[in-house]
Specification:
It holds the Pfam family Thioredoxin_4. The chain is an alpha+beta fold. The protein is built from ten helices and five strands, in the order H-E-E-H-H-E-H-H-H-H-H-H-E-E-H. A five-stranded mixed β-sheet has the order 1-3-2-4-5.
Amino acid sequence: MKRRTLLATGGAAILTVGAGLGLMPRNQQTGLLPGAATAQDATGALPEVLEMVQGNPMANLEVIEYASFTCPHCASFNANQHKLLKTNYIDTNKIRFVYREVYFDRPGLWASMVARCTDNPDFFFAFSDVLYEEQRNWLASGDPAIIIEELRRLGKTAGLDDAALDACLSDAAKAEALYTWYQENAERDNISSTPSFLIDGENYSNMSYDEFAEILDEKLG
């Protein structure tokens, strides 16, 4: 179950898509923004990236999920395994669950910037559910302009107004901070596919709920 190599099919497919869309080098990261022409340039120190945490922040057992909002396997995990984990382990305060985004493509970063618009974990996780549930719809066109409009539509449905969305989607400093954070996390934790997990510091690839629960129960003793 522990990952020793890249996931055979799903991971490779995701990496291929990511490579095709391409993420900019750090000195060109404003190009990641949908409104790059009018975005404010990132200057000075980058803002701190807030960890998105569910469950008991003081729990002895930490689970970190690495996922992309554009990853179909991540959407499936969110709809199935995560819901059971939330009921049985997160809401019962048995574990500290951390969600970290992976940016293999621009739409994944844009979705993350809308989800993090308020920097409120409750909003983030609720909006993450919407992003995954509506994933096929907002990504369907493959057209960046339409994808942005779809993300704005979802953001408005969640209570964000135009001013908030404009500010979030043109924040070059936040975009650079998120991308740098992703790169550092991926390199440190050997993340090359999604979803991936660190459970008590050990790497695991995607798995069923029963397999997940068996690992957690063993570590919880």
